[in-house]
Write a structure and sequence with these properties.
Blueprint (H helix, E strand, L loop, with lengths): L3 E8 L4 E8 L4 E5 L5 H10 L3 E6 L5 H4 L2 H8 L2 E5 L3 H5 L19 E3 L4 E4 L2 E7 L8 E5 L4 E5 L2 E2 L2 E2 L9 H14 L5 E4 L5 E2 H7 L4
Length: 209
Amino acid sequence: MKNLEVHTCVLGMVQTNCYFLVNRQTRELLIVDPADCPERIFRKVEELHGKPVGILLTHGHYDHILAAEAVKEKYGIAVYACAQEQQMLGDSRLNLTAYQGQPVSLKADHSLSDMEVFEAAGFSVQMLHTPGHTKGSCCYYIKDEGVLMSGDTLFYGSVGRTDLPTGSTAQIVGSLHRLLELLPEDTEVYPGHDCPTTIEHEKRYNPFV
């Protein structure tokens, strides 16, 4: 039996998936992309009897980070992000929070490099740099659990938009191909929006392949 439980809250104006990665044995958990509505995140943690130990950001857009500071402060936990996303996290115009009436300037506590592995909540987590949606977009791969948190890089049958600051269609297609070549077909994929998928499904049906 897997030691990882994946729970989801759909938050904010564009229906962003905020994930809670829970260690079944210790109840330690990682919060992926705290999109908005910190009170709902706090309630979900209570429902799960969880112990937050970190925040994983797949990228810096407003709809993934608006609650990050409040969650960080409440639990006294660190924020993880790709090193190449630091500029966007810190600039409210680039991350688009300035245009939502809630300007956010955020600095990750752990600035990760491509393929870097770190330990958190009892899991070995690998950060895969997958540029295209943004310059520093990334995915988090938990190999032992067969799970990928894909952010807005890979969706069910699609990829993320590339028409926002630092986006690149060529890069996101390259990132998609890299993920499909690198990961086992039975890997469960949890995207930033919409429903989960698998690497096998995307190899067969994603039109960007």
